[in-house]
Amino acid sequence: MTTRTPCVVGLNLGHDGGAALITEHTTVAISEERINRTRYSPGWQAALLYCLHAAGLQLNDIDQVVVSGIGNEPPSWEETRLGHFGIRPDRTVAVDHHLSHAYTAYCLSPFEQATVLVVDGGGNSGDTETFYTATPKGIERIGSNAPTRRRTGGIGAAYEAVTNYLGWHEQEAGKTMALAAYGDPNAFPDPLFDLDGTHVHGRLHHTHARGIADLVARTGWQVGPPDTRGDQLRGADLAAYLQAQTEQILTALTEHVIATTGLSNLCFAGGVALNCVAADKLRRLPSVTGYFAPPAASDRGQALGCALYGWHRLTGELPRRPATNDYFGRAYSDAEIEQALKRDPRSGLVERRRAAFQWRRESDIAATAAQLLADGHLVGWFQGGSELGPRALGHRSILADPRTTDSSTALNSKVKRREPFRPFAPAILEEHADKWFDLGGATSPFMLLAPSVRPEKTGAIPAAIHVDGTARVQTVNPDHTPEFSGVIEQFHRITGVPVVLNTSYNQQEPIVETPAHALATFQASGLDAACIGNYLVERATLTP
Ligand SMILES: [Fe+2]
Known about the structure:
It contains 16 helices and 20 strands. The protein is an alpha/beta fold. The chain has three domains: about 10-100 and about 300-315, Nucleotidyltransferase, domain 5; about 150-295, Nucleotidyltransferase, domain 5 (2-Layer Sandwich); about 335-540, Carbamoyltransferase, C-terminal domain (DHBP synthase). The strands form four sheets. It has an eight-stranded mixed sheet with strand order 13-20-19-14-15-18-16-17, sandwiched between helices. The chain has a five-stranded mixed sheet with strand order 3-2-1-4-5. The protein is globular and about 70 Å long. The chain starts with 7 loop residues before the first strand and ends in a 5-residue tail after the last strand. About 55% of the residues are buried. The model has no long low-confidence stretch (mean pLDDT about 95). Bound molecules: fe (ii) ion. Fe (ii) ion binds near residues 101, 120, 123, 270 and 299. Belongs to the NodU/CmcH family. It comes from Streptomyces stramineus. This is Carbamoyltransferase. Pfam families: Carbam_trans_C (PF16861), Carbam_trans_N (PF02543).
């Protein structure tokens, strides 16, 4: 008889669905969108099978399934549809949505004791802002927004309303944050939120365009018709006002909450924790001694939070798994990569445009990539397991030379086709980070802080700097991210700059997951090369 560790699965039944699986030694997690290729997709079925495959387990190996969702109540057994997978009700529990966020925030953090703050568009029971104490004994809910206040009065809902109004999906709040740098944060004098103790009272009473109608009624500012897509800078003052008000209310809330708990390490989760501009202000507050946000702070981390909760519930051990990286996806073998490159249908390759390519195995793929970057090429960089969160952190990235804005222009025109006001982010070797960015000794391994670039360095990396002089930087540690560090080290050796431009490996669709996705995106886009594992893929050269 073999002994095995418990196996716990977490499933997110809401938007940004997905699955996570943890055992004693394994953590695997992925969003459904990475597999079904539909952005923000609900669902968990394909993700669950992916996690089981990665862990070498079967459905009947699962000891505990934990589910979460949004809405008034956590999901019922009938809503889970787990019966179709042969999973019994007595192996399934539901967890509160915000508590799941709190588990990712604390269990992945380096802190023994912390205040956990969760802020998102809405969880269960009208939760939009909740806070907890977290110690090795457990995670205890201390307070929340007033339960009688409508969800639309929350911080996240206000951000969603403006983001929708500007023509974007509510999960694209990062676009609004980027646009804010172009506007006047003092465009309106009145506050958008009030704070009563730790209770936030937003002054919007609706989400979507009706929420903006509320704002206009209060301010008298004519912000124009809904959906200004194509002319987004018109919305810059609105975005700047929203961002400034969000920063102010989060600052006041954090100070109140920490004064209440008496624990000065702050773990921040929920979709609002992806607001790296606000996060950079919170972590500098005098009352905050340590700051952590999990890389999958939004609902993409729900499934993982569920699994962590389930482990605690099943084993009695509060899992402490401090995250040094966000690579919760599975790695692909050389055989699997070659299967895609040989256009073997078993790889799942769908060649939408059969651009001719050639490939070969490289002895030092990092050196090859670095030279291509230094020569001004756009390089797809696919290594190891994928990132769970929304940021590509060097495993599913597109890289470019940060020393010239020609790179960012080419990235947008040939591959990404993003709104032109959105910046691209730098990735820097951790040992050099403080010399280039005002990090104050902090690291930013998950690209969730936005410090200012040191004035003397701005001329060296113009492609990586936003209009306000900040950059959404990733600090890269060779011990935690060896392949990505290798490229930056080689680029540094060639150019004297320890920074590369880093954006997600995708083109108007979810980030690539498999080697076949990476090849298809290379073929359909204007990438100059792709490094998939140790394999270099280039455009085919014509031979006479
Ligand atoms: Fe959430």
